[in-house]
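User: Hi! Is it possible to get a structure for several chains at once, not just one? Here's what I have:
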Amino acid sequence: MRKGRTFVVSGPSGVGKSTVLKALLESRKNLYFSVSATTRDPRPGELDGIHYHFMDVESFRKWIAMDQFLEYAEYVGNFYGTPKKFVDDAMEAGKDVILDIEIQGAIQVCSKRPDTVRIFIAPPSWAELERRLTERGTDSPEKIQKRLLRAKVEFQTAHTYDYFVINDTVENAVGELNAIITAEHCKPQERMEIISGR
Amino acid sequence: MRKGRTFVVSGPSGVGKSTVLKALLESRKNLYFSVSATTRDPRPGELDGIHYHFMDVESFRKWIAMDQFLEYAEYVGNFYGTPKKFVDDAMEAGKDVILDIEIQGAIQVCSKRPDTVRIFIAPPSWAELERRLTERGTDSPEKIQKRLLRAKVEFQTAHTYDYFVINDTVENAVGELNAIITAEHCKPQERMEIISGR
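Assistant: Yes, the chains can be modeled jointly so their relative placement is included. Here is the combined structure:
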């Protein structure tokens, strides 16, 4: 059976990445959405193995020492990471894996797994990103300006990504993501077994 | 307006390339199917500009001298070639261009236009290709064996292609071709105008 592939999806805060990925998962079978591990406490309603794999700090550090993470970071005193095991199990089962991680994490993953496909979800324009952040209503105007600045800085380092999906509408963005996943399975190295096996 | 891109599609005799490309053209707007130029005489029912651009040998040689072909070849005493002009006009008009040419022609095109995307349409198996050639009923068993041998030799040089589409069913093959074209438009260099324009 063919092995799945890993797709890293990044994008600025407010671009609508969660909505797009949710719609992608509904539209496409055989996709595994990687669940992060964290040392922070579960919030009300969060389930272990669904929202996060909750771990204590000692276990997390042990996993780091044993190179059990594709990437990890410390953020506001808590660890967050992508466990190798679940990704590898899904790929062995023939599933494609989606990792929803930011640029620094993506760099870590790709240094360990150079065949990872990197997709950046971009807004149709900066003005539209500002509009979406404002409409969300969760941030102060100052915070929104900070997020926009960060997005623009991040964008400068995003030119190494393999694909840019423009989230103008969820439908278009999901269509492009589906096309990218399908196209990546048509690459020669993915078809070697079929090619050589006859 | 965004410029179109050029996609070279090759594949062995009998793989069903014409059927797949016809279905692709019906399924996707904004696609221009490149019409070859030739010095051979029109056959009954063949229309100039539709089936071929019919030219005399003198004009064809002049076009060669003026570097007006993306690729050309002489075959059984006649010239065949892909005129640059029609490809460029379509691309400038924002259309993607499909070139249905064999491997030698594809090499010529890509040496002139390295951003050309090369797609190889492969059969699900050699046995299936043999079955299709036999079913077609146009060739003797000896000719079929010759075609199969040629297909296998060609296949060895096809590893430089960007994508392999398996024509198991027309629907799947067209789905993969559509995905490849869409995905190629998500490449960073294709989105630079959007990216830098805001």
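The first strand of chain B starts at residue 6 and ends at 10. Chain B has a mean pLDDT of 92.

User: Great, thank you!
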